[in-house]
Design goal:
The protein is of the alpha/beta class. 41% of the residues lie in helices and 19% in strands. The chain binds nicotinamide-adenine-dinucleotide. InterPro entries: Ald_DH/histidinol_DH (IPR016161), Ald_DH_C (IPR016163), Ald_DH_CS_GLU (IPR029510), Ald_DH_N (IPR016162), Aldehyde_DH_dom (IPR015590), Aldehyde_DH_NAD(P) (IPR012394).
């Protein structure tokens, strides 16, 4: 079987191929359900050891791992470059924030997840109350190929910092990147298999969902997300879903148009548009529309696909995506859109030339569905109410961007999305302290930040009685007088307002 860059061999294994050259990058086993179960059993044992290390012991080891990744970042970037085709510099651009996230998770896990005192309230005033987030146990992480370091590390580093063991199933297109991360971890933490990888196609991922892990953190397409949820439902395994997006960039009349155009081009075209939180649509105030389009056209001319050292974007990593990009462009053009950059012939065998479409009907696939190529649609709007309404009229709601001098904050709040950047694009990804995740078909649950740490723990409440209260409720020896006094107290406190 060949699923484009991932090709099976005769011996229950598959090759990952360089999408620019078709060279074999690595050969990996297709793990069966039994293999996955064995990995989860090993992880279960390691999880106890890892949890017992406590926050300080884990933080120390995560820093050691992060040191290995940092010192050999160039080597890792070469593996990313080979397996995804993205330029080496773009590979570094995802490795650097991944390092920052790991450092943040290690440093902040105790503060976010450690024991916190809570108020006991009036009824249980004799109790000392604490909440702490305890590890879930073993986390199954299923990842995509487009950012094979940054995306899974948003789950892996946070799950490990929260005290869990991890079994990671990378995309069949990028197993060598996953193996590199696992090997680097084993070098820093040789004692136990706290972080393992299983490889294969969808069936291996499905087996992980059914292997009795304590949570699945999935990043990928909404269609696969639904299959993951169905599989996890069988065992009531909780899931976190980070799915696709159709992010919008909004340009207000008072915006810095040059900066907005620059951000739109980078947001739409970088990584050849294969970015979940990439910009795919722009809604631009009519007063600056012509200027914005002219600047986008000018700036797009400098974006060159290729595999050489100076290329700005690489090939499309997953060849099946070429058909989707071609279809979206053709459909838009057939329905009256104009290509001001690229167009009908933009999609080749491996590479896609930057394409900017204007006058695209709002119900065209290029506006409604995730294109995942270096394409951008630009629409003129009368005012920001229209921009917000059109941007929000999407089943997706991952990120987004607003360019405005006076109204950035209010516009950002009104965008239906998990994250919004004002006067820049995709900046939220590089801020470890903020959560990352979407609404609607973009998924649910959060990676990154305190919210991302809490995803991988369960809140354990403990009440400790400090003394016996005169009005004790939790006993059969309670008198009618006590009940009456408690009822009177609660009426006094909450019964006054009509
Ligand atoms: P995909 O859904 O095809 O595959 C993702 C992973 O799921 C792969 O490891 C795959 O082997 C596995 N898988 C496939 N079928 C499965 C099944 N039935 N059960 C269990 N696992 C299964 O996605 P992709 O093409 O690798 O990634 C691209 C998508 O990911 C895009 O939609 C993109 O927007 C999204 N993405 C989202 C984020 C985010 O954080 N929200 C980040 C990166 C990518």
């Amino acid at each position: 079987m060949t699923t484009a860059q991932a090709r099976t061999t005769d011996s229950g294994a598959f090759d990952s191929l360089n999408p620019a050259t078709d060279e074999v990058v690595g050969t990996f086993p297709i793990h069966t359900a039994e293999d996955v179960a064995a990995a989860v059993a090993r992880a279960r044992e390691a999880a106890g050891w890892w949890a017992d290390l406590g926050f300080a012991g884990r933080a120390e080891r995560l820093r050691r791992w992060n040191g290995v990744v940092t010192r050999r970042a160039n080597q890792l970037a070469e593996v990313v470059h080979a397996e995804t085709g993205k330029p080496h510099a773009d590979a570094m651009l995802e490795i650097i924030p991944a390092i920052a996230h790991t450092a943040w998770a290690a440093k902040n896990a105790r503060k976010v997840l450690g024991e916190q005192r809570r108020s006991p309230g009036l009824l249980m005033f004799n109790q000392a109350v604490t909440v702490e987030y305890q590890p879930l146990g073993v986390i199954g992480i299923i990842g995509p190929w487009n950012y094979p370091v940054l995306t899974p590390m948003g789950s892996i580093a946070y799950a490990l910092a929260a005290g869990n063991a991890v079994v990671y199933k990378p995309s069949e297109y990028t197993p060598a990147v996953g193996q590199w991360l696992v090997d680097a971890f084993a070098e820093a933490v040789p004692e136990q298999p706290v972080f393992q990888q299983v490889t294969g196609f969808g069936a291996t991922g499905a087996a992980l969902c059914r292997a009795g892990v304590d949570k699945i953190a999935f990043t990928g397409s909404p269609a696969t997300g639904k299959k993951i949820m169905a599989a996890c439902a069988e065992t009531l395994t909780p899931v976190l879903i980070e799915a696709g997006g159709k992010d919008a960039l909004i340009v207000d009349a008072d915006a810095d148009v040059d900066a907005a155009a620059d951000a739109a081009v980078w947001g739409a075209m970088s990584n050849a548009g294969q970015t979940c939180a990439g910009i795919e649509r722009a809604y631009v105030h009519e007063r600056v529309y012509d200027d914005f389009v002219a600047k986008v056209v000018e700036k797009s001319a400098t974006v060159r696909p290729g595999f050489d050292a100076d290329a700005s974007i690489g090939p499309i990593t997953m060849p099946a995506q070429l058909d989707i990009i071609r279809r979206h462009i053709a459909d838009a053009l057939a329905r009256g859109a104009r290509a001001v950059v690229g167009g009908a012939d933009a999609v080749g065998d491996r590479y896609v030339q930057p394409t900017v479409l204007v006058d695209v009907p709002e119900d065209a696939e290029a506006v409604r569905e995730e294109t995942f190529g270096p394409t951008l649609t630009i629409a003129k709007v009368h005012d920001m109410d229209e921009a917000i309404a059109k941007a929000n009229d999407s089943k997706y709601g991952l990120g987004g961007s607003v360019f405005s001098r006076a109204n950035g904050m209010s516009l950002a709040r009104r965008l239906r999305s998990g994250m919004t950047s004002i006067n820049s694009v995709i900046s939220f990804v590089g801020v470890p302290s903020v959560p990352f995740g979407g609404v609607g078909d973009s998924g649910f649950g959060r990676i990154h930040g305190p919210e991302g740490l809490r995803e991988f723990g369960h809140p354990k409440a403990i009440t400790r009685q400090r003394f016996r209260a005169p009005l004790t409720l939790t006993t059969f020896t309670r008198t009618k007088k006590v009940d009456a006094q408690v009822a009177k107290l609660i009426t006094l406190l909450h019964g006054k307002r009509r």
